[in-house]
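Summary for the steering committee. The consortium agreed at its last meeting that each partner would contribute one worked example illustrating the joint modelling workflow. Our contribution is presented below. We chose a case with several input lines so that the handling of multiple components could be demonstrated. No manual editing was applied between input and output; the record is shown as generated.
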Amino acid sequence: VSPLTVGVDLGGTHIRAVAFDDDLAPVARTAAPTAAEEGVNAVVGRVAESVRAALARAGSDLEDVRGVGVGAAGLIEWPTGMVLLASNLGWRDVPLRDLLSAALDGAAVDVDMDTNAAALAEARLGAGRGLRHLLYVTVGTGVGGGELLDGRLYRGASGGAGQIGHVVIDPAGPRCGCGGQGCVEVYASGAGIVARAREHGLTADTEGVFRAAEDGDPAATEVVERAADALGLALATYVNLNNPEAIIVGGGVAAAPGYRERAERTLRQRALPALADVVAVLPGALDGDAGAIGAALLVSEDDGRST
Amino acid sequence: VSPLTVGVDLGGTHIRAVAFDDDLAPVARTAAPTAAEEGVNAVVGRVAESVRAALARAGSDLEDVRGVGVGAAGLIEWPTGMVLLASNLGWRDVPLRDLLSAALDGAAVDVDMDTNAAALAEARLGAGRGLRHLLYVTVGTGVGGGELLDGRLYRGASGGAGQIGHVVIDPAGPRCGCGGQGCVEVYASGAGIVARAREHGLTADTEGVFRAAEDGDPAATEVVERAADALGLALATYVNLNNPEAIIVGGGVAAAPGYRERAERTLRQRALPALADVVAVLPGALDGDAGAIGAALLVSEDDGRST
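What follows is the complete predicted structure of the assembly.
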């Protein structure tokens, strides 16, 4: 039997581990609550247990594993796998790669941002198959991204590349969680839509704001249109800087009716025409296992820089 | 004798050609007026003459040339060397690489944006020596840039990457030459400073506006501070997207007292702290032959994609 690769999606509420064979077909999976409130060691322990359990269900064990890839939300240093900041876990400067490798008898571990894992999954198996220059952007509670440049994940000097959520749309705009002001995330994300609606006296969750807009509420309509326009502006800036072939838009908020289309319209109005001409805007094609598949791809595409 | 490489800086007013030896030491140089008003064929002819003359002065000729690199202002498709738009030459869709190669008996020719040539020169021989992830930005009449990612010039899907001048600072801002609004170039460039000062009733050239600001004129001060802040904001967005090790700032306008320093301050306030921590902001170290050297480097670093 050929060795398995385990991909782990470490989220704020759940840990999902999937064991894949050489063709990246899923062989076994496990899920566990993250329970981040119990602290770093408890979470790392549960990730390790999930990996061992997935391997056991696949009839294998750590001796036969090719490697373990982990995608986690937050800002993660590459290749060290140090979680610099993960607000959904309450972590700051957690050496996740080293802790997890130690908890797994020294197994090879890659840790990267979940958005990079998702970008890789879309590039290899999803909407970006065959493309060499793309941005993956996900619009959910927040706005995040990952860049594939010249056919490879681009991580920048320290692993932080792809923070499309922190393109500044309005320097005098609302305060962002990052410490800045007027980042696209404060307009375009689910949390941003809720906060901007509240400024208009409209108290509702993200879906409620979209529903109110569909029902013709003027404040909700303004908030929703501003959200898509802000995303479009940020994408125009990205296009002018990195000249991608495609932008793949994923995430629940971007799936709202008309949202991606309006963002694309704004992008095409605002980007340099010659660069807008060559970029396709595509919906993400993967869900479900995408996070875990991307995490497993981190292992198979690790070119050794992380060792 | 080993073959020479010729680097050509094709500007709006002058054509400068320099023949370099294997160590990129200049061996001979020529200069000619561009005289763009005489049309594409005349300009291409003068570039070819300049290349032949530089080689002749170096005691060589086209039979012994390694290649000819050309850096030109404007938006240039890579690797085809098609000048999509060069407003200083009045060109649109000019196949410069092919025309010049034909005029040079089929010699190997690389044509790229002058900002990419300058970025390469700074990366290999200037302020960016030894770095693998940098942005070169030049602030003169306009604002332009070039990206070195993972140690190589990054051109994007079609050659347009690095248009830092068209990061949108204010979506409702003044109209930009690109068709958009509120691009950093309309605030931070020499032409932008002049235009913004005029809106304040101050008619002066760029130097005049800087002098008025030094003399305490409030409108001029506001325009100059806004210029540097706009550049800093655009650089913060760049840092959040591409996580560089260094930003090298060149160009005459950025050399004005305090300009680069203020832009850096704004960048550090606005970028994600973890990414601001790892980026150095440096003045460009090259001038004079930098454009021609960079153009020659296009030849020596061409990995064959342009053939």
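The mean pLDDT of chain B is 95. Chain B touches chain A through 49 residues (CB under 8 Å).
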